[in-house]
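Lab meeting, action items carried over

1. Structure of the two-component assembly. Owner: GW. Status: complete.
Input record:
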Amino acid sequence: MQVIQSNLGSDGPLHARIATAVRESIRSGRLTEGTLLPPTRDLAADLGCSRWAVTQAYDQLVAEGYLESKVGSGTRVRHGAAATGAATPGAVRAAVPRLDLSPGLPDLRAFPRAAWARASRAALGAASLQDLGYPPAGGHPRLRAAVAGYLTRVRGAVVDPEQVTITTGIRDGVAAVAGALVAAGHRRLAVEDPGWARLRARIAGTGMVPVPVGVDASGMLTDALAGQPVRAALVTPAHQFPTGAVLAPHRRAAAVDWAVAVDGLLIEDDYDAEFRYDRRPVGTLQGLAPDRVALAGSVSKTLAPALRLGWVVTPPAWTEPVRALAGEAALLDQLALADFLDSGGYARHLRLLRRGYRDRRDALVAELERRLPGCAVSGIAAGLHLTVDLPAGVAPARVVAIAAQQGLAVMDLDSCRTAPDPTRPGLVLGYGNLPDRAVPEAVAILAAAVRTAAAG
Amino acid sequence: MQVIQSNLGSDGPLHARIATAVRESIRSGRLTEGTLLPPTRDLAADLGCSRWAVTQAYDQLVAEGYLESKVGSGTRVRHGAAATGAATPGAVRAAVPRLDLSPGLPDLRAFPRAAWARASRAALGAASLQDLGYPPAGGHPRLRAAVAGYLTRVRGAVVDPEQVTITTGIRDGVAAVAGALVAAGHRRLAVEDPGWARLRARIAGTGMVPVPVGVDASGMLTDALAGQPVRAALVTPAHQFPTGAVLAPHRRAAAVDWAVAVDGLLIEDDYDAEFRYDRRPVGTLQGLAPDRVALAGSVSKTLAPALRLGWVVTPPAWTEPVRALAGEAALLDQLALADFLDSGGYARHLRLLRRGYRDRRDALVAELERRLPGCAVSGIAAGLHLTVDLPAGVAPARVVAIAAQQGLAVMDLDSCRTAPDPTRPGLVLGYGNLPDRAVPEAVAILAAAVRTAAAG
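Predicted assembly:
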C-alpha cells in the first residue's frame, strides 16, 4: 500500500512508524472511511518487515478507534475516523507599542530578576516533600503569614493569616469574592464609574451585574449607594482608578456605615497603594472595618504581572467560599514571595521603585505643563497613572488613534466610563512602563496629536 | 493619655508610632467610640514631643476613618471604628500520613529539583520585558507550541497550538470547559461512576449537574449516554479512575458517534496516561475526533502538583470561552516548562519515572498477592493506582479507619462512587507517593487491617 510506505518515518520502532503512517493517512483523508487495509502478511512483505510489527500497528489503531477489525472481513478504516484540518501556524502576540503611556503596567525593566531568582532558588531548596503536593486551599501558610504581616505593618490592615487567601492577582481575587457573593444570593455589585473596565468585565463574568456609582474629587459617591439595589460595592479608596482621587474620610465612614446598615460587603481594590509620593499612604478601609471589607491586592504593580500572585483578605464568613473560587498560584512561587517579603527584599525594592516613579511622574507632569499648558492634570499624588483633561471639542478617540500611528499608546478616559461623556474629554496616562528618557518624546507626540485632533 | 503612652512602640518616626498606638487602642477597645482625644498641644506635652508629630498622627487617623475632627469640638474616636477581635494564631496544615497508599499524588521524591531549577533560571534569563507583563489569554505561545508538539508526538493527539489553553491543572481545565458548557446552555454533564469525587465536586461548583454513568471492565458504559438528558460527557479513556479500565475500541467509537449525533462534547481527562507499563500507551480519544473532544492534562502526575501547570486542548469553537474561565499560570513557570519539554528533559524524566513506578507496582502487586491472597487486584496496567476487592462483608470504611490508626492512608472505593455499594467493597491504592522500601510494611498493615475488620 503505497500511501503507507511513502509516509513511513525513520524514527522509532517500526510498528510505531507504521501506526503513525496509517493514522496520518486517515487524518489527511488519503485513506478514506471504509477502506480495506492490506492483510498483515501482505503489508509485511511489501515493507520487508516482520508480520508482528504490522499486527502491532493495526492493533494499536484499532485500540485508538481509527481502524476496525472483523473476523472474516479484514481490517478497515473505521466509519467516523474522518480527516481533520491541518494545523495552522501559531499566531503572533499583539504588537507592543514603541512608547507605552497607557495605564496598567508597572516598570517591567525594574523587575528584580536577580533577587527573584535567589528567592526562587531558596524556595525550591527549602520546599518540603509535602510542599510539592497539591497546595492547601487558600495558599501556603508561610505566604499567608508573610502577607498578613506585610498588610498589618504597611497597609494598616487587620489581618489574621487564616483569613488570607492567596490568588493569582487582583482580578482573580475580586472575581472570587464576586462569585461568592453570587452564590450567597447577591445579584448586583456597585462599581465606581469611571473605573477599570477589565475588572468590571471580569465581575460581569461571574454572573454579577455591575451597578455604576459616580466618582468625584473625594472618591466614590458613597451617598449614592443607599439608593441602589445593592448590598456590596467595589471601591478603590487609596487611589481611585482612573481619577486618582483618595476616598475622603467622611466617605470612608459612610461606606462602612452603609455596609453595616445593609449587612453587606465592601471590596477594597488596593491595586497601587504602595506608591504614594507626597504624603504617607492612607491605611486601608479594611483596617477600619475588617468585618465588612474584603481587601484585594497583588504584586502585579510592585514586581510583575507575570508572577500571577496576589491575595484577598476576607471577613471570616467569606473566607471558605472565596477560597473555593480563587485561582491556584504555583506553590514554589508562593514560597519565593514569602521569602522575599520576610527577608525585607520586597520593602527595599518598593523604596527604590517609589523614588524612581516619583522622579518619572515629576518629569511627566513638567513636560505636560510645558507642551499642553491648557490641559489640567490630576491624580498625581499616588500610583502609576494620571489623567489629563482635553480641550473642549477634541475627541479623545482621535487623539488615541493619531498617537498610535506614531507608536504611542494612551488611553481614552471614556474607555473607563460605562457611557462616554463628550462634555469631559480626557486621557489616562500610565507612566509605569515608560522609560524615563522616553518621557519628552512621548509627550511631544501626544501634544502634536492633541493639536492635530483639535484642528481636524 | 496613658493608653497612648503605654502603647508607644520604639520603631519608626514618632508620628507613625503615635498613630499606631491610637489605632491599636481603638481596635482593642481600650479607646471606645466617641472618646475625646487630648488636644494636640496637651498630648505633645505629655509625650515630650513636638505638636507637629501629634497633629500628623491625628490627621492620618482622620484620613483612615478612626478619628473624626470637628472645629470647636476636638478630635474623637469615630462612631463605627469599633473593636475587632485579636488575630488567632495560624492553623497548622493537615497531618501527613506516615505511609501514603491513597491515590492522587505522584512520587514527590522524584521531582527533578535540579533540572527544574535550571529550566526556571533559563526562563527568567530568557524572558523578554513583554513576558513580564500580563500573560496572554490561553498562555504563552512558546508553551502552547511545546505542549502541542508533545501531545502530537506522545499522545497521538491532533493539536494546533492555537487551540491549547494553559491551565493551573486538570481540575482547572475541566472546570473551565464545564463553565463554558454552562454558558452555552448545558445544564448536565455525564460523569463516570465510580470516578474522581473532587473533580465531580469542582464540576458541580460551575453550576453543572453531574449525571453518573456506570463503568465496567471496558470503561464507561457509553451506550448509556444516549438515554441521558446530556450532550457532554467527562471520560478517562486511557485509564479509568479508579477501576483502571481502558476504554475499549468499540466504546471509543460509540462515544464519538454519540457526541456527533447529539452535537455535543467529550471531555477527556488524560490524568496519568504517561504511565503505561505492559504495552504502548493508547492514543487519545481527542486524536480520533478533535472536533468533538476537549483534552485535559497536566504535569501534576509527571512533575509535581505544586507547579500548578496544565493544559486543555479544545475544538476551535470552545477555545475562547474556555480561555476566559481558565486559571492563570505564572508566566515564568510556563516558560520553564516549555524549556523542559523542548529540551527533552521532560521525556527523559518520564522514562525514569516509568521504570521506577513499574518496579514499585510489581512489588506492591506481589505483596498484595502474598498477604491478601483472596483479594482480586485490578487496574494495574497503567497509572499510579490499582483497586483491591475486599472479602464480602468487610466494611472498607473500617479498614480505612484501622489502617489510619497505624499511620497508613488508603481510599475507600465507595468514596469514588456517587452512592455506596456494599455488595462490592473495595479499596483504591495509590502507589505514586509511597517509597519503595515502605511497600512491605504498608501492605502488612493493610492486611492486618482487613483481617481485623473481617473479624470485628
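2. GW to write a short summary for the group page. Key points so far: DSSP finds 15 helices and 16 strands in chain A. Confidence is low (pLDDT under 50) at residues 83-94 of chain A.
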